[in-house]
Amino acid sequence: MKQSNRIKAMVKEEQEESSNRPDNTAFTQQRLPAWQPILSASIVIPMFVLIGAAFIGVGVALFITSRDIQLQELDYTGDDSEHPCFKCRTNTEKCTCSMTFSIPTLFKGPVFFYYGLTNYFQNQRKYGASKDDNQLYGDLNYFTSPSTDCDPYTRDSKNMPIVPCGALANSMFNDTFTLSHTVNGVQKIVPLDGKGIAWWTDYNIKYRNPSITPLINAFNGTKKPTNWPKPIYELDTTDVYNNGFINQDFLVWMRRAALPDFRKLYRRITHDDYAAGLPAGNYTLTIAYNYPVHSFNGKKKVVLSNVSWMGGKNDFLGIAYIVVGSMCVVMSIVMLIVYARFKFGEDD
Amino acid sequence: MTWRSPLALVRDALQGQRARERELRSLVSNLPYEGQEKGKQPNRFFLSNAIKTTKYSLLLFLPMNLYEQFHRLANLYFVGLAILNFIPVVNAFQPEVALIPICVIMFLTALKDGWEDFRRYQSDRKVNNTPCFVYSRREKQYVERRWKDVRVGDFVRVVSNEIVPADLLLLYSSDPNGVCHLETANLDGETNLKQRIVVSGLGAANLGFEPESFNSAVVCERPNSNLNHFKCFVEKPDKDKVGASIESLLLRGCTVRNTNHAVGFVVYAGHETKAMLNNNGSRYKRSKLERKLNVDVFFCLILLFAMCLIGAFGHYLWLESLPGVPSFLVPDSNGHLDVPSLESFYMFFTMIILLQILIPISLYVSIELVKVGQIFFITNDIDLYDEETDSRVQCRALNITEDLGQIEYVFSDKTGTLTENKMVFRRCSVMGTEYPHKENAIRLDVIDEPESEEEVIFNQHQQLPRSRWSLEAEGISPPDTQRHGRRRKSKVAANAHSDAAFSSPLETEVIPDQKLLQQISRAESSGGRRDGNRSFDPHLDFFLALAICNTVVVSAENAHRQRECTSPQSSQMRNPLETFSSLVKKAGAFFQRDKRNRTLSEDPVIDSAKTEDEADANRLRTCSLHAPSQNGSAIVEAEELCYEAESPDEAALVYAARAYGFILLARTPDSVTVRLPSGEDLVFEVLDTLTFDSNRKRMSVLVRHPVTKDYVLYTKGADYSIMELLGTPYAENFSGIEKNVAADTQYHLDCYAKEGLRTLCITKKVVSESTYQSWLGERKRAQAAMECREELIMQTAVQLETNLTLLGATGIEDRLQEKVPDTIVALREAGIHVWVLTGDKPETAVNIGYACRLLEEEDLVINMSCKNKVTCTAILDCTLEEVRRYRDDPRNAGTTQNISLVIDGNTLDMAKSPDLQERFVELTKHCRSVLCCRVTPLQKSAVVKLVREKLKVMTLAVGDGANDVNMIQAADVGIGISGQEGMQAVMASDFAISRFKHLKKLVLVHGHWCYTRLANMIIYFFYKNVAYVNLLFWYQFFCGFTATTMIDYWLMIFFNLFFTSTPPIMFGIFDKDVSVEVLQGVPELYRTGQGKGEYNFLTFWIAILDAFYQSLVCFFIPYLAYQDSDVDLFTFGTPLNTAALFTILLHLGIEIKSWTLVHWIIMLGSVALYFIVTLAYTATCVTCNPPSNPYWILQNQMADPMFYLIVTLCTVVALLPRYTFHVLKNSVAPSPLLQGRQLDRMDPSTRDQWIKEWRGFRGGAPAKRYELSDPPSPTLETPVDFFPEFLPDSNFMGDDLSLNVITESRQRAVHT
């Protein structure tokens, strides 16, 4: 007992004696076990071969997928004087024009109907900021006093608040289209499905109508955007679930495109005889031509496309994968040569 | 607390201000006012003793810290940008959001500052609450108070080993002589004791000191920081003034030693004390890396401006190209559109805001964090911990760790840095006869063995009495059990004495030379007892001179540095207060100035010394040839005597004299007591001491011989300063025989020097009465002179030191520190030029140079020593020519021969002159090592500056003493060795180590690591920011240069602040490219950091270019993949952001050299953090951050296979070139570092084999350790040639013959 006490005392003394001694742990002495990879050809050659093979595989799959996608583009800007829409180009009144086109083989469904704009900078910073999220969320407080982000599209000349405010909403695309199939010389309207073209989260969460019925009452004391022919609560009077802020076309427009040349989903062709796709034949596209594009040298077009698991037609990704994969394989051969020429130290 | 009107407070404050500013302060005792309110206190205007070193206070922390932080330019830049963002026409983001990064950065910095300040606060509190004893009138005794409660005007009692709480005017000391010993190590680091004397003339109270009766006023000067100067007088009630100086001031922070207790009057307290006025915080140095970094930040700034200009110009073109006003152009709130030129002008600033993080905002704070981590690891390195002194390496400058990795020139002091500065008496020459002291050499040689020092010494002790140091005893080894017991004990003893200077047995023990002993005993016996003729025997005189001619202070108690004086043998100490009164009485008599004619027997001091010496043990008896029993009453417990010397040489000489029986017993300002071998005590009256100065290089003591009554001047000094002062040969009665004493001694001196010993000449001069009297008059005039007193005093000293008679010379060894040769070789192999700057003579220096392998036997050694400038120029030109030819000679291309230069102080001065310095520097550039001898401290720093400025290289200076301070401060990195010579060098240094050998790991390993880590981290940081910012920049080409971001702003901020910030910091702290073993085994690896190092123009721009490439890949692959689709803004940005994250992290992954658990956790953690935070953010934020709205973006993307395909492709393509480049480089042209890493992967034994082979291949095979000539190895058959391959032009190393003589004689001794 005594002895153990003495030993304890000695140990204590020992510790006190060297109170300044650093801890001898793997961490403080920087001796933690470590993995020290050295990049050199012998490890890399199989890796490069593997990556190359995988990439080529993926690339081929992507390329085939992309190649199978059918695409029909119709420019209806009407810059060319021969074009049926040429007359509408400068016309400020309501104007309609129609274009005909033919589909040689069955256009597999479901077919997506897009409208496209070029040189339209929806990603312009001030333009993108010019909206009021709270207003669009259905918050009535922001109906009467919209955010200053919307300036100068906040109030009209009579100082009435504009709902929805801002440049983004004000510049909403307002051309409309009808597609008809010529069957035996008779024009047959192809039914277009406007449901579910916007993001589910936009439709259900981000954008909400005020919970006031009828909807029109919520907009008392407000004005429609200056460029709009009719107020927001009349966008689709036939369907309360497609009216107001949750109008699908409105939602699609409000989701800003990333690049100046973009397309936006207009409708899907999923109904009736066309659920399996558009049969071969002649079609007529009738356009209610409203949206001005000459101020930005833009083009307007309609795109019909079917989609795959990777989205729309895009050959780039497939080709890129194949190229990179091939490069990896080539590199591995280079490495092999290098490896043969320079026997380096690690292989002993 | 009573209420006082504010007016009175203001008045008081003003008065206090005035009182503190006054030139002279009059202080009175506080005691009469004790207990009264503050307004009545006489000394209330002076600062209290509480100290506060904190920078901030709790309340004012925020404003003060902000003020501090805005001193940094980078912070101002970012705040400026954030403010710019509040201007509507140019803002890029929501104004508030732009403030976040800078706020986070400044918050982190503030946190760090606050923590540091808190630590200072804690240490302040500890100091302030240290107890001390203050006299209280109410309790009529000294009561315990805290330091902070001490006020000016208090009486403080300090006891032995206590730290002085404030600057005290010494009024009373328990020492009979009124002396208080003080150790100032805390202040200036000098470990020798200083004497402080009680203010004289207050001596009315002989019977102890009564604070209450102290009714004088103390008038002192305004506080200043001069530690060696203090002016003050005490004005007694009768207007009698008594002066006092620094001699009577106990400084705060010093430790009282050897004095039982003392009482002082507080003159300065707290921040007004000299110690605090000298305490200016840590220094800020800017490292080379940081200077380069700032240049690159500037480049980034240029890049930023270029990009912003492109943005502005692009915006202008874009606006101009629009034919009309499209609906996406948003006018200002008045519906008005600015002209394109104005818009693009605004856009320039918006772009700056957008692309601001091109200047890495978190770089500076990251660097600081990394350095904190690096310093943590350096100070925690157990290899840099010194058992003996229980000290770690100290990093005093916190921000130049990476400079350690770029050192190209090391300037080292010799004494105390390369050597132990523990002087050991080795041999001496008396009257032209050499006494080699071979037994002593054997003893030292045994200690040289790698075993524990103490153990061996104790073995020696064990043997000494028995064997009388005979050689045969060497064979007897003591039983093991004894060894271990002893060892333990010795360790404890060593610890107990760890702070006592020069007390290890190594230095104190000297084994006398038999022949010399016989010589002395013959002299003694032939000389007779009392005939006065005896003192003329030069052998006796020689040792008397050793014992007398010094300034060594004798301290009688062995336990003097322990807390309490409980030594039972000195009964006086039992009841100090009682006996002290009587002692003070004696002291009073002692201090009467007129005591020239005092006789030996009456001297009370000697009496007391004797009584103290009555009780003793007897180890040293054996050292004296004369049995102590002859004079039993006066036996000295010499072991109990402790010598305190200013320089270790002096102590070594005194110990040597003691070994021969000449024991220095006591030294007072006026007398020296020496015990002769016969056991007789002689008291020499000291008439004057001509102290050492660096001009004269000698010191003298003028004493009056107690028996012959002669005035004798003993002088010792450097041989060159003594030899020219010699008069006629020694006394005429030896004529003929000893004519050649001077020549013989010079011969021996040269031999000593070549052996690396420090030499001193000992002389004597008998001064006639009349000469003395006339000299004394001049001396007094000189001392009284007001102007150029120093010079006059020196002149008088020179006057007296003429016609000296040479007695002999001594050789003192200053042993090399452990592993010094190894360290120097490693430094040289690491491509570092090593310079040794020493005050020694060339011979000594060269020898040490060989011993520590600064010079190698196969080296080409150039000697430069010339008297005038013309020859100097000629020699310089010649040598330079020679060296160039040698270098250019193709035959020498493959050889590894190195060139070394030995130069002396004079020549150095000439070479440094403006017209020659270019050539000199050019020459030294070719020299692997340079040895400068006989240089002054000023020259040391001048050399460092010259090399540093002319060659633009990184320099490191290492030294241990006050004479190295200049050099340490002049160099880029100053390293102080906390050794024998105190703390001054350490105070001035950036890093403090305890042994020279630690330099190897500090520089080669930690320096390399710190530099590589930081360099790579900084390059990575620049890369990271450029790569990320460029993503935004490329997008500008597709959004009309309108500063749109395709990534949510919060996520952008998080990206820099959280997702990618910790990995580089971890990289900077933990990455380990090569292991300790390889770095130390292959010092060449260090060269990677030298010169431009890894962080240079090329690597920086390669990183920037790579960043451009990677950002192009990360932008354009998604761009092309999403072209002509209905992708929306943030959906497009998400894969970009993710690909950038993976690219940036994996890029670091390529750079990381060793993956520990920490690396894995942080890297994977960062990725996890990115996804968790982004998912959480996009899932919860519906309208929280208008107008940006990333709701459900990442979720949507993660459900899309395209996302993964794009991210994978981006990451692979972005990293492929760098990866391939690394692989090819590693395979085709592996860098030395990579080879080092390959060594690392082998198992230790193979690795050692490889290292050996590698070294062998380079021709730098580890040479055998150079041995000093002394080891009495029986195999030493042939004389050793010491300078085998010297150039013919070596002008002082010509005569190898001299050494042969010595070695021969020694061999004879060995073989007998």
UniProtKB/TrEMBL annotation, chain A:
Pfam families: CDC50. It is found in: Membrane. Its main location: membrane. This is Cell cycle control protein. Residues 1-25 are annotated as: Disordered. InterPro entries: CDC50/LEM3_fam (IPR005045). Keywords: Membrane, Transmembrane, Transmembrane helix. The chain crosses the membrane at residues 38-64, 319-342. One of its GO terms (biological process) is phospholipid translocation. GO terms for cellular component: endoplasmic reticulum; Golgi apparatus; plasma membrane. Belongs to the CDC50/LEM3 family.
UniProtKB/TrEMBL annotation, chain B:
One of its GO terms (cellular component) is plasma membrane. Keywords: ATP-binding, Endoplasmic reticulum, Magnesium, Membrane, Metal-binding, Nucleotide-binding, Translocase, Transmembrane, Transmembrane helix. It comes from the Eukaryota. The active site is at 413 (4-aspartylphosphate intermediate). It is an enzyme of class 7 (translocase). GO terms for molecular function: ATP binding; ATP hydrolysis activity; ATPase-coupled intramembrane lipid transporter activity; magnesium ion binding. ATP binds at residues 413-415, 650, 692, 716, 758, 838-840, 934, 940, 963-964. Its EC number is 7.6.2.1. One of its GO terms (biological process) is phospholipid translocation. This is Phospholipid-transporting ATPase. It comes from Poecilia mexicana.
